[in-house]
Design goal:
The chain is an alpha+beta fold. It folds into five domains: 60 residues, Helix hairpin bin (Helix Hairpins, Orthogonal Bundle); 230 residues, DNA ligase/mRNA capping enzyme (D-amino Acid Aminotransferase, Chain A, domain 1, 2-Layer Sandwich), CATH 3.30.470.30; 105 residues, Nucleic acid-binding proteins (OB fold (Dihydrolipoamide Acetyltransferase, E2P)), CATH 2.40.50; 150 residues, 5' to 3' exonuclease, C-terminal subdomain (DNA polymerase, domain 1, Orthogonal Bundle); 80 residues, Rossmann fold (3-Layer(aba) Sandwich). The protein is 37% helix and 20% strand. β12 and β13 form a beta hairpin. α1 packs antiparallel against α2 and α12 packs across α13. It binds 2-(butylsulfanyl)adenosine.
């Protein structure tokens, strides 16, 4: 293709991709399938590779661009980013309205806009001639950190405004957030990968925005909504409702619920209504913001050094309870992380009885000056995990005892250490029984090697008996050991036989399960799947250099370093060799028992959701099969879903899939695709006689 034709085609592709990005990420109403989108994207990427000099900065292919930073630079805000005064009662809101009325001297009801107060991280975007040139955090309000490279990875933020004649300068201000659902998913993945979970979506958002490597940020599910402006040149905006409308036109998201209200009674009604709707929002809302609509009136009122006089926040009361801190226990995780847990006098909170709450880490205990015996305030952080938020200092009697940081592991008594730049204290003895148990539990867990019957209780028994300490030990258990297992309390012949069969069966698992099960720090299930899809076998992965690892999409330098370090370790290498000798599967690729083996799978590279009950196989077996065939199996239906496999009583996922035009397969269709109706794999037989 000649240069001119290529340039035209690329411009056309970019425009189409931008439009589809907007429909998908902002409107949540895609018009084309993921595969059609991927085709456009691939064509553009290939053309850009052939004509690199024709690639503009704001091409949709260049969202993740730039090298990791060594730190953040500060830049001034052209218009300061103010804060808001807070109110906590309707009476205070009435006072605000009375003040506004007095200052304006209008004597007529003022028109306000009521918006949700999004509990995220505030951000200012600067567009020049419609192109995103800078993203700044709020910082101290006068200057903030430049986070442009990270913000460019947020797919709902346009790199170019959707507008034929954009103003010379347009600064949009809003909030970056993580939806509750995505936050829960991220935290689960972090826990599975041996990383410390975030306390709440806001911390997760702030932490993500401050990552130094934009490639890592691209993997964090960030989103943003806009509700304010900074400098605007070349355009006059007269009121908040116009600004919100402008955001929508430009392709920037604005809050879902915004309501105009004339006079305080209407304001209060809107604030109450928002409180009712609050739990239905995808993101956390900690209050309502009431703002004067007309910018000209705002100017007449002005601002104090801290906050404008024309707006106020009304904070909803968090669900809190007070109770006594009886004790602090310390849990030792798979990676040796010591996590303090508050043991509380049971108390009711938001419909459940709470007797334990997270304290995150020992720095936090010190910062909040939490002492044993204190009366503490607990809150449902992120409305999911209860956490101790503060101490009721007035209730101190003087008998409270300070909390000691552990100087040794509470389980093995071995030494503990605090890592560089880490708040977490870790037990450094890899043979610590708590770590040994947790590692085995993780290895056998459903998401990993899925060794049925090898749950927490059985793992504990086997470890206490000295029968196993590492995953490889499981595969080396012989008839004598299984006889001993059959005689353990609570077990018996049948249980031992089942365990043996389950261990045997797990050898055939796709190797990503093994990789995930090994518990390499930072390597979650998803990363394990990506890695195995890329390298094809544990051996190739094991010998990959850090550099080769970072070439894999979505694998950042921290993960690469962790993987390389794991496989450099002699003890780990010995484990791997023993697992190989035991016959655990190391290679991806079709298994001979599959009827569809050798054929290109319909599911390769597709996003698939399972719903309802399958008659012929368990959900987990179906999922495993799909993953082996190259599918990405997810839990909820979205516009990205390619197939929904619907069993009996499919429920709301089916409705949603229909609404989104997702291809729906019955169980019979699915079985036909995977060849199970022709070739049902025989159930594995125990090979070791008891
Ligand atoms: S307006 C000059 N509107 O709340 C007034 N702020 O506590 C600027 N926030 O720094 C703020 N949702 O980060 C406004 N709908 C909303 C908001 C909102 C969340 C944040 C914002 C601000 C903080 C003040």
């Amino acid at each position: 293709m000649d240069r001119d034709t290529a340039a035209k085609r690329m411009a056309d592709l970019r425009q189409r991709i931008r439009r589809h990005d907007y429909l998908y990420y902002v409107e949540a109403a895609p018009e084309i399938s993921d595969s059609a989108y991927d085709r456009l994207f691939r064509e553009l990427r290939d053309l850009e590779a052939a004509f690199p000099e024709l690639v503009p900065e704001d091409s949709p292919t260049r969202r993740v661009a730039g090298q990791p930073l060594s730190g953040f630079v500060s830049r001034p805000h052209r218009v300061p980013m103010l804060s808001l005064d807070n109110t906590y009662s309707e009476a205070e809101l009435r006072e605000f309205d009375a003040r506004v009325d007095r200052w304006l001297g209008a004597g007529i009801p003022v028109e306000y806009v009521v918006e949700p107060k999004i509990d995220g991280v505030s951000l200012s975007l600067r567009y020049e001639d419609g192109r995103l040139v800078q993203a700044l955090t709020r910082g101290n309000g006068r200057e903030g950190d430049v986070v442009t490279a990270n913000v460019r990875t947020i797919r709902s933020i346009p790199l170019r405004l959707r507008c034929a004649a954009p103003p010379a300068v347009f600064e949009a201000r809003g909030e970056v957030f993580m939806s509750r659902e995505e936050f829960a998913r991220l935290n689960q993945a972090r826990e599975e990968a041996g990383e410390t979970p975030f306390a709440n979506p806001r911390n997760a958002t702030a932490g993500s925005l401050k990552l130094l490597d934009p490639r890592e940020v691209a993997g964090r599910p960030l989103d943003a909504v806009f509700y304010g402006h900074g400098e605007i040149v070349g355009l006059t905006v007269e009121r908040q409702t116009d600004l919100l409308q402008l955001f929508r036109e430009y392709g920037l998201k604005s809050p879902e619920f915004t309501q105009t209200a004339t006079g305080i009674e209407e304001v209060l009604a809107a604030v109450r209504r928002l409180a009712e709707l609050r739990s239905g929002f995808a993101y956390e809302i900690d209050g309502a913001v009431v703002k004067i609509n007309e910018f000209e009136l705002r100017e007449r009122l002005g601002a104090t050094a801290r906050a404008p006089r024309w707006a106020i926040a009304y904070k909803y009361a968090a669900e809190k309870a007070r109770t006594r801190l009886r004790d602090i226990t310390v849990q030792v995780g798979r990676t040796g992380a010591l996590t303090p847990v508050a043991e509380l006098e049971p108390v009711g909170l938001a419909g459940s009885t709470i007797s334990r709450a997270t304290l995150h880490n020992f720095d936090e205990i010190e910062r909040k000056d939490i002492r044993l015996g204190d009366l503490v305030e607990i809150e449902k952080a992120g409305e999911v995990i209860p956490a101790v938020v503060s101490v009721v200092l007035e209730a101190r009697t003087g008998h409270e005892r300070p909390v000691q940081r552990p100087v040794s592991c509470p389980v093995c008594r071995g030494p503990v250490r605090r890592g560089r730049d880490e708040v977490v204290i870790r037990c450094v003895n890899p043979e610590c029984p708590a770590q040994v148990r947790e590692r085995l539990r993780h290895f056998a867990a459903r998401g990993a090697m899925d060794i049925e019957t090898l749950g927490e209780a059985v793992v504990n028994l086997l470890v206490d008996e000295g029968l196993v300490a590492t995953p490889a030990d499981l595969y080396e258990l012989g008839p004598r050991e299984f006889n001993r297992i059959a005689n353990l309390p609570g077990l018996g012949f049948k249980s031992a036989q089942n365990l043996q069969a389950a261990i045997e069966k797990s050898k055939q698992n796709p190797p990503w399960r093994l990789l995930f099960g090994l518990g390499i720090r930072h390597v979650g299930a998803k990363a394990a799947q990506i890695l195995m899809q890329h390298f094809g076998s544990i051996d190739v992965l094991m010998n990959a250099s850090e550099e080769e690892l970072t070439q894999v999409p979505e694998i950042g330098p921290i993960m690469a370093e962790s993987i390389a370090a794991f496989f450099r370790n002699d003890a780990n290498r010995r484990q791997i060799e023993r697992l190989r000798r035991a016959g655990v599967r190391f290679e991806t690729g079709p298994r001979t028992s599959s009827g569809a083996a050798g054929q290109a799978s319909l599911f390769m590279g597709k996003t698939v959701v399972l719903t309802g009950t399958l008659a012929g196989m368990t959900r987990d077996a179906a999922k495993q099969k799909l993953v082996e065939l190259g599918a990405n199996v997810t839990g909820s239906v979205s516009a990205k879903t390619d197939f929904l496999i619907a069993g009996d009583s499919p429920g709301s996922k089916l409705q949603k899939a229909r609404a989104l035009g997702v291809t729906i397969l019955s169980e019979a269709d699915f079985l036909r695709e995977i060849g199970r109706d022709r070739d049902v794999a025989a159930p594995p037989q125990p090979v070791l006689g008891l």
